[in-house]
Amino acid sequence: MRPGLTWFYELRLLLLAIIAGTGLGWLAGSPLGGFAATVSGALLVWVWQVRKINRWLDSPETTPPESFGIWGVILDNIYLLQRRNREAQNRLASALDYLQDSLASMRDAALIIDKRSAIAWCNESARSLLGVQFPEDRGQPILNLLRMPEFHAYLDSEDYQYPLQVLPPQEGGVCLEFEVSRFGDGDRLILVRDVTDRIRLEEMRQDFVANVSHELRTPLTVIKGHIQMAIDNPTMGPDHLQRSLAQVDAQTARMENLLTDLLWLSRIESMEHERKTEWVAVDKLLETLVAELRPGFQDREIELEIRTGYAVMGDVKQLHSAVSNLIINALKYSPAESPVIIRGFIEEQGYVIEVQDNGPGIEAGHLPRLTERFYRVDKSRSQATGGTGLGLAIVKHVANAHNAELRIQSEVGVGSVFALVFQPELVRGDSTETLQ
Ligand code: ADP
């Protein structure tokens, strides 16, 4: 029933009771007594109803007492409000559970701190990333646990518009990014992620741009110098001019090689995850390569020792480029009188294509960085031989694209062996012998 109507009925009932009570009092000779008795009775009923409601409100989880009239409506409304409130609380609690569950399974560390910056909750990743444990560290001030001055200043500043990056104090440490958002009554949610890889990639990108610019600037400067000289000396003799033009030609070729290698490298990278479907016959590949290289290195001894009849699953153009880079390096970096040996054989790990030289060898400290773009052990020597500094980076990417391993063994004063090791499942033997 609508509250207005209930009031109307309640008032009507009261008035009727008063009229009836006063009438009965009048019949009994005391209308005022009848009136007073009716009002007192009504008041007593009201007080009794209020008492019932009050007792029920003390333990609201019990069912509400039976009531009538306006009191019944009041009780029903309180009960309804209570039920809605409980439902809203349940919804909020399950939303919070859901939120905590999702934060708990995140790879990023998530922490909730209260307005005094004390830890209220944190997920499992906070333990591995920050060493904060839950529930052990509940109530601990976060600033006591994370001893990073930059983070302290950031948290105190209360300006969380941009995330904060904290670089590790020493090389090899972890770089962290903090993001803070406010909610509730001064509570804050802190998300912390490990951005070491992202920062390293960004550094690599910047280094790469700087390196390419540097590699291009050197030949450009030489070319510009020769052109300027020709402009400044209109009477320059034909011999001198020829020598200048030969230099310009050599530097242009160097720039062209660099751009070709860069484009090729980026193409291999983009195809790295493409499935290979072609069987490449190793003996044919190596024989072709030696035949192609021999005219350029006529005075060099190139030996080929190969277990014939094997093929690897791969991309013939990429394999050709990788092995050719290894052979050219072996020839470039070893004395003219020493031989370069190319082998193809089977071992436990798979099929191996290796190139061995008796060059100067490479110090162990350089080996981990050798396949980085533009990394050179001896810069002047490498530039004198016309290398782009991308050869081994290409080999490494070709190896990755073929699930193969690039193995480098080198001893200073003895020589180097660069090998590509192909997994047995990607190798096919001849009709009489297979690896699988
Ligand atoms: P580059 O164009 O300079 O040869 P690479 O990526 O092919 O570039 O090789 C990187 C560096 O590794 C070379 O500059 C050289 O210092 C070293 N290196 C590569 N192969 C050999 C080798 N067979 N013997 C000695 N040093 C080598």
Automatic annotation (TrEMBL):
Question: Would the keyword tRNA processing be found if you checked this record's keyword annotation?
Answer: no
Query: Which Pfam families does this one have?
Result: HATPase_c, HisKA, PhoR
> Which residues are in the PAS domain?
95-150
- Could you tell me one molecular function GO term of this UniProt entry? phosphoprotein phosphatase activity
This enzyme's EC code(s): 2.7.13.3
Transmembrane stretches, start-end = 7-26
Q: Name one GO cellular component term.
A: plasma membrane
Annotated GO biological processes are:
cellular response to phosphate starvation; phosphate ion transport
Job description of the protein: Member of the two-component regulatory system PhoR/PhoB involved in the phosphate regulon genes expression. PhoR may function as a membrane-associated protein kinase that phosphorylates PhoB in response to environmental signals.
Q: What protein name does the entry list?
A: Phosphate regulon sensor protein PhoR
Q: What is the lineage of its organism?
A: Bacteria, Pseudomonadati, Pseudomonadota, Gammaproteobacteria, Cellvibrionales
Gene for this protein?
Answer: phoR
